[in-house]
Amino acid sequence: MTSTISDITVKTIAGADKQLGEYAGKVLLIVNLASYCGYTPQYKGLEELNQKYSAAGLRVLGFPCNDFGAQEPGTNSEIVEFCTTKYGVSFELFDKVHAKGSQQHPLYAQLTSSVAPKGEVSWNFEKFLVSKQGEVVARFRSSVGPESPELIAAIEQELAK
Length: 161
Known about the structure:
28% of the residues lie in helices and 19% in strands. The chain has 4 helices and 7 strands, in the order E-E-E-H-E-H-E-H-E-E-H. Helix 1 links the parallel strand 3 (27-33) and strand 4 (58-64).
């Protein structure tokens, strides 16, 4: 297994294939999302991170996921509608994925085995920070919000490299 996510292909929310290597040179914050979760208001903070740091090279990548409490039952078009109208989301959204279990997406298999604490994603809005080289460098549990000093410090540190 490669130590980077660059060779992994994902589907955009519109259904097109996209290789994560296209983000080489960018710092990525990968988040599994849900529209009906207690952490759903984090969309606002994720969009604020996107607005504040995108010019510096941060890309927030959102992966809707229905693995936790069936809190993302919507279709891709319903998810886009919800995210843009309720939270003004402009960061990239992708096709719904499985973050855990037997159908776990290869991206999440790589993310969850690359950095401590290793193991399955435990809930919606877990965040993975990926370096400009495509290496997973940090993992933040759902309770670590987008405005959290530890997350912001980690993002700024990666952007400065």
